[in-house]
Design brief:
The complex is a heterodimer of chains A (111) and B (174). Chain A is built from five helices and two strands. Chain A is α+β, with helices and mostly antiparallel strands and 111 residues long. Chain B starts with a helix and ends with a helix. In chain B, helix 2 (26-51) runs antiparallel to helix 3. The chains are: A alpha+beta (111), B mainly alpha (174).
Amino acid sequence: MSNPRIDDLTAIEQHLMLAVMRKRPNAYGVSIKEEIELRTERSYSLGTIYTVLQRLTDRGFLTSRSGEASAERGGRAKMFFEITGEGQRALSHSLRVLDRMRGPLVPQEAL
Amino acid sequence: MSRRFLTGFGRSMNAIFDSLLAKYGFVRITLVILALFVSYTAGLLVMGLIAGLHTTLLLTIGGVGVAISTMLIRRIVTYRSRRIGKRGNSVAAEPPVFAESIARLFANKRTIETELGDRLELFREHYRTRGSFRAKLFYWIDVANSIRPKLIAKLTQLGFFGFAAELIRRYTSA
């Protein structure tokens, strides 16, 4: 098949990349977490989210830039994430693989 | 007993409990409830061992004790949340120091400050909307969920003593 590096996106990686795309240009830890909770009803910890975001950045699927610090965050800056072209390709490929697997399944009641 | 009587009784008990909370503070009342619960459980165990009471009876009495304690603790949480809601000073709220230190110890060096900033932002949001107790509880849960996979991985990789040494190294270099 195609590039093995593209094939291995896990479910959480797919969720994060989709959330980053949805929250663009305001995709940072809290907004990504809230978006995933809203749409999937799953709650990932911030530690998990940052570990995966870092992994995706290292693989070249995301880029990050630092925002401005605020008092609400104790003087700490936000880190905004954006998806790269390679990231978009990897995500579409991964979702297409899922779609192909799902295919035209025989409905349960027909069995 | 009619429904109206039960509702009235419940409201009066809540009012009495709230006035006790206002007078003695929620920490003291919580400690008293916990102490009562512990002695209650110990009493049940003694009764079970010495007097040889029937297990079903013991479990029933124990269950009633658990239910009452849970109800009282829940009432305390509601009372605290209402008070915090009235106060609404969330910007000055600080997260649990110990939890923050643990999170700092396990966080990735590149994203440590951002991660702590995000967690603080969530903590203050929870503090404003749900009160101090729940905000701290959610903070602890998030920290525990964040460090659990790293802790397991490190323990598997380094063993207990290696992991302890790694923690000391991280703590001294932070």
